[in-house]
Amino acid sequence: MEQLGGEATRDQVIRTIGADHVALREQVLAELRRRIIDGDYRQGERLTETRLADDFGVSRNPVREALRVVEAEGFVQILPRRGAVVATLDETAVRDLFAVREQLETLAAGLAAERATAEGIASLRRLIDDASKATEAEDFDRVAELNSAFHRAVIEVSENRWLHSISSAMYYHVHWVFRVGAAQRAPHSSEEHVRLVDAIEARDAAAATTAARLHVEAAAKAAFGQRPTA
């Protein structure tokens, strides 16, 4: 009995260590991604493993793992003789992002109008209200975060798991682009979100699709107007 108890204890310790490692890696990844999106690490800025480990107060191993993920996501580039460098939001990347957004978000809006529950619509209204409060408080980091949360919520309301799976990584970049000019874009974006939710609540799929398309077009126009020159 004692031997069995000892083995159980060892297994529990091993599982706990593994869980802690994963949690630390995910924390470093989330913080690295946040600092890039919020502009703490600027486009073109070099990010060494040593510097990031010092910034986060961790060893280099979770930093190395996080850098691999953000490189795959397109936030970081690995350049010869320079190492990891924060990617630049160039014109091609931004145009490609909005081209995909238009297809996904118009589809999601139409489905949401057909499938939305009262609870789902209420959640969308709450996100709009929260974003309005954050705009009034000039907390534009929070506004950008809520903007992406709103669009993810529309996809949740659409109840299409493929849209959810395909778009999950994209909205980190939507957040990044929106944050660049959130102060100017926020009031207009909120009004467009209201029109979209109104159409969804009215069960008008055509109007919801149109509202989503016009919203993406307006966001794209704003992004190109305020995007820093590479």
From TrEMBL:
Keywords: DNA-binding, Transcription, Transcription regulation. One of its GO terms (molecular function) is DNA-binding transcription factor activity. Pfam families: FCD, GntR. Residues 22-89 form the HTH gntR-type domain. SUPFAM superfamilies: GntR ligand-binding domain-like, Winged helix' DNA-binding domain. CDD domains: WHTH_GntR (cd07377). The keyword ATP-binding does not apply. This is GntR family transcriptional regulator. It comes from Kribbella rubisoli. The lineage of its organism: Bacteria, Bacillati, Actinomycetota, Actinomycetes, Propionibacteriales.
